[in-house]
Amino acid sequence: GIQVEQSPPDLILQEGANSTLRCNFSDSVNNLQWFHQNPWGQLINLFYIPSGTKQNGRLSATTVATERYSLLYISSSQTTDSGVYFCAVGRGANNLFFGTGTRLTVIP
Amino acid sequence: DVKVTQSSRYLVKRTGEKVFLECVQDMDHENMFWYRQDPGLGLRLIYFSYDVKMKEKGDIPEGYSVSREKKERFSLILESASTNQTSMYLCASTRDRWVYTEAFFGQGTRLTVV
């Protein structure tokens, strides 16, 4: 399978701070997604972004497929942003390979 | 909005029991998936299905089976539960059979086998 490395593994931020999460992957992919898992375990799809840049409110993501990495930017962080952020990549329709996640804690 | 619903949030079962985890999606998606999530390992694919009565093994199918009798429902079966199957189980669905597009997940089932 495709190896996915996420960094940093843990991140603690003061409310209002900005952050960048990184995802490196070991092979070419045509599918890359970012998810947020809230403290109750629900995984929410943030971005479907196999290449290019997307923005959704305070969150944005950039994937440089040729260099095999993706970045997730969180601006003006809020306590509700806390949780685990997963990057997942794949080829074709049958599987996504997940990283081990970045655990974000935003303190008031 | 797509909704993926798992039948239980928490389950406690005894070693050797047969366990059924149910998942239902309401948007006519073709693909459905079962993952397990363990600390430090991320999510790993157990089985997936791209059509009724069709199934494909994922990365860790041993000890599990699945059933898809209707398009909207995908069941994960632990034939004889063991303590190493204690985990969080997550169901997901995607729209298209041939292209893995945006994935939608259920709320998860935390299974404890004692």
How is the secondary structure organized here?
The complex is a heterodimer of chains A (108) and B (114).
Chain A: E1 4-7, E2 10-14, E3 19-25, E4 31-37, E5 43-48, E6 52-56, E7 59-64, E8 69-74, E9 83-90, E10 97-98, E11 102-107
Parallel strand pairs in A: 2-11
Antiparallel strand pairs in A: 1-3, 3-8, 4-5, 4-9, 6-7, 7-8, 9-10, 9-11
Chain B: E1 4-6, E2 10-13, E3 19-25, E4 31-38, E5 42-49, E6 56-57, E7 64-70, E8 73-78, E9 87-94, E10 104-105, E11 109-113
Parallel strand pairs in B: 2-11
Antiparallel strand pairs in B: 1-3, 3-8, 4-5, 4-9, 5-6, 7-8, 9-10, 9-11
Describe the structure.
The complex is a heterodimer of chains A (108) and B (114). Chain A has 108 residues and is mainly beta. Chain A has no helices and eleven strands. Chain A has one domain (4-107): Immunoglobulin-like. Chain A has strands at 4-7, 10-14, 19-25, 31-37, 43-48, 52-56, 59-64, 69-74, 83-90, 97-98, 102-107. In chain A, the strands form two sheets. In chain A, strands 2, 4, 5, 9, 10 and 11 form a six-stranded mixed beta sheet that branches. Chain A has a five-stranded antiparallel beta sheet with strand order 1-3-8-7-6, with no helix packed on it. Chain B has a single domain (4-97, 105-113), classed as Immunoglobulin-like, CATH 2.60.40. Chain B is built from no helices and eleven strands. Chain B is globular. The termini of chain B are far apart. The model of chain B has no long low-confidence stretch (mean pLDDT 93). The interface between A and B is medium-sized, with 24 and 30 residues.
CATH class of chain A: Mainly Beta
- Which CATH first-tier class of chain B would you pick? Mainly Beta
Query: Which percent band covers the strand fraction of chain A?
Result: over 45%
* Helix count, DSSP H or I runs of 4 or more residues of chain A: 0
Radius of gyration of chain A: 13 Å
Name the CATH homologous superfamily of chain A: Immunoglobulins
Sheet with the most strands, sense and barrel status of chain B: 7 strands, mixed
* Poorly predicted residue ranges of chain A: none
- Portion in beta strands of chain B: over 45%
| Domain tally of chain B | 1
- What is the CATH third-level topology name of chain B? Immunoglobulin-like
**Named CATH architecture of chain B:** Sandwich
Computed CA radius of gyration of chain B, to the nearest angstrom: 13 Å
Number of strands of chain A: 11
Find the structural class of chain B using helix and strand composition. Answer: mainly beta
Major protein interface: A-B, 24 and 30 residues
